[in-house]
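Researcher: Sequence of Transporter gate domain protein follows. Predict its structure.
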Amino acid sequence: MKQLINQALKTALLIIKLVIPFYLLADILIYLGILQKISFIFEPITSIMGLSPEVSLSIAAGVLFNLYAAIAFAAPLGLTPYEWTILGLFLGIAHALPVENTIMKKLSMPHWYSTLLRIGVGIIAVIILRTLPIHIEGKTLQKEMTLPHYDSFWDMITTSLYNASVLAIKIIILITIIIFIMHFIRTKLFKNKNLSASFSIITGIILGITYGAGVLIAEKDKLTKKELLYVGTFLMIAHSLIEDPLLFVLFGANFWVLVGIRLVLAVIFSYLVVKFYKL
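Model: Prediction complete. C-alpha cells:
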C-alpha cells in the first residue's frame, strides 16, 4: 500500500508541475495579445485543410493551448458544419501540444516524435475526410464562446491560478482513483497480470491523454519500451473521443466522422510503429 501511495503522490506532483504553469502561460499570452501575433505560422496548414486564413488563429490557439481557446476564436467566423468537422478532426488529434507532448516525454517519447506524429496524422485525417464521398449537412448551432475578460493583470493571474489549481486537483483525484482501481483489478481479480496497456488505452480514449498517460506514468516500469511506444502512439491519435468531439458537434460537426477516422488511423499508425520498431 505504501508503494501505491508513493506512485499516486509522484503522479500528482507531475500533474501539478505540468498543468498549472502551462495554464498560466496560456492566459498570460492571451491577455497580452501575443497569441494573435503568431497565428500566421499555421496559415499553410489552413490552406491544406481548405479553410480560410482567418481560421489560423483558432488552430494556433488549439495546437498551443486547448480546444476551448480554439473554439472561442472560431465561433465568430460563421463556419459551416463541414468546416467545423475539418477543424474538429485536426484539432482533436493535434491540440495542447506543449503540455501533452511534455507528458508523453515522461513515457520516453521525444517532443519531435509527438509533434510530427500528431500534426502529420491530423493533416492526413483531414485529407482523407476531404476525399471521402461524405456529405455533411446540418445547420450550424450558435453558441456564444469568448475568451475570458479580466479587469487587470493581477485579476488575470489570480483567476488563472485558481482555475489551474482546480483543474489539477480534479485530474489528481481521478488519476489516483484509477491507480487504486488498477491495483485492485491486477492483484485481486487478475493476479498481477499486466493490464496497464489496455487499461490506459481505454482511459485515454474516454478521458484524454493526461489521464491515460497518467496511468502509464504510474505503471511504466511494468511495460516494455515497445509497449509504451504502441500505447503512446495510439493515445496521441485517439484520445478523449467523447468530450472533445462533442465540443465541435455543438456547431454542427459530424460526431461519427470525428471518432471513426481517428480510431482507424490510431490502429493503423500504432501497428506500423510496432512493425517497424527496430528501425
